[in-house]
Amino acid sequence: MILVANSEAWPGFEKSVGLLKANTHGVDAIVAGISEVEREIKVRSVGYGGWPNMIGRMECDAGVMDGTTREVGSVGAVPDTLPVAALAHEVMKRLPHVMLTGEGARRFASEIGFPLDDVLCDDSRRVWWERLQKELTPEELRAFPDIPLAPLSRTITDPERVRDTTVFLSQDSARGIHAATSTSGWAWKYPGRLGDSPIPGAGFYADSRYGAAACTHTGEMTMRCGTARSIVLAMRFGHSLRAAVDMAIDDLAELGTGFLAGVVVHAIDAAGNHEVASFRCPGEIKYWFWEPKLSKPELRVARQYDPQHTTQRGN
Ligand code: GLY
């Protein structure tokens, strides 16, 4: 067994550990942990602590993948709903579809008993409105939100700061490898924007035969590279976990445009190894790790990607 999650996972990590120890199916264990993260207002990138879109509405994204069946459920830009990783899990269990977005996702949530909740906390509403007041003219503020929003998408966002996620990767007692994600997405995003967190293959992927991967921060980058699927596919082709992660980050590093610095790649393999790597300096990025020989979860330091790495097939 193994559990890896990013540093934002602290409110729910131990819950997932406890469920894995009790031989709970890994998807149930990690969805239960993520639901705790979504409820924690101090986590400023997910659920109640997250940031709204440009017009002040929360639109949350989440994804769940069962690596044994390769079934996936995901929801994107869902208004008025928590917990969204649990909603993604219900999409997987109840529908012949993989992904629901926007009002359709909210309709499904109502049908199966998820309450209506605007999710927006007072502090996020205050920060959002103060930011708009700095950016807009008095005429624009009076007309808001019936003004062109596209020009604002390049000025009111802070690309390096508020665009995070929580990701959980587990191998359970039945050796099933699973992944789950949740986020409120890019702060002040254009309404309807999806990041990578609900996109299987980009923000998350799991295959119990080989391993799983999930990414945090700027989904616009990992969607361009299919990062999570690339890592698992590289392992299928015989590469080590380390080499698979390095190759996927090589692809990201090749991109000449966009905001790369914040992207963090998390991955595990079927032999119980794990890798968390980023472009940041050593010590800047941390993650949670647990395996049965540890008496309690550990907060560890991610590896800094080295563009000169020598990992290759079979290493
Ligand atoms: N990785 C989270 C996002 O891009 O929304």
Task: Please supply descriptive tags for the structure shown above.
eight-stranded mixed beta sheet; alpha+beta; 315 residues; five-stranded mixed beta sheet
Would you summarize the structure shown here?
With 315 residues, the chain is α+β, with helices and mostly antiparallel strands.
Q: Percent range for helical residues?
A: 25-40%
Domain count: the total is 1
- Rounded to the nearest angstrom, the distance between the terminal CA atoms is 23 Å
How many helix segments? 9
- CATH class reads Alpha Beta
Spans of at least 5 consecutive residues with low confidence: none
CATH superfamily: (Glycosyl)asparaginase
User: What small ligands are held by the chains?
Assistant: glycine
* Proportion of residues in β-strands: 15-25%
Which architecture does the CATH hierarchy give at level 2? 4-Layer Sandwich
Q: Helix and strand string, N-terminal first?
A: EHHEEHEHHHEEEEHHHEEEEE
What structural class do helix, strand and pairing data support? alpha+beta
Strand order of the largest sheet: 4-3-2-6-5-1-11-12
Total beta-strand segments: 13
Mean pLDDT comes to 94
Principal-axis shape: globular
- What CATH calls the topology is Glutamine Phosphoribosylpyrophosphate, subunit 1, domain 1
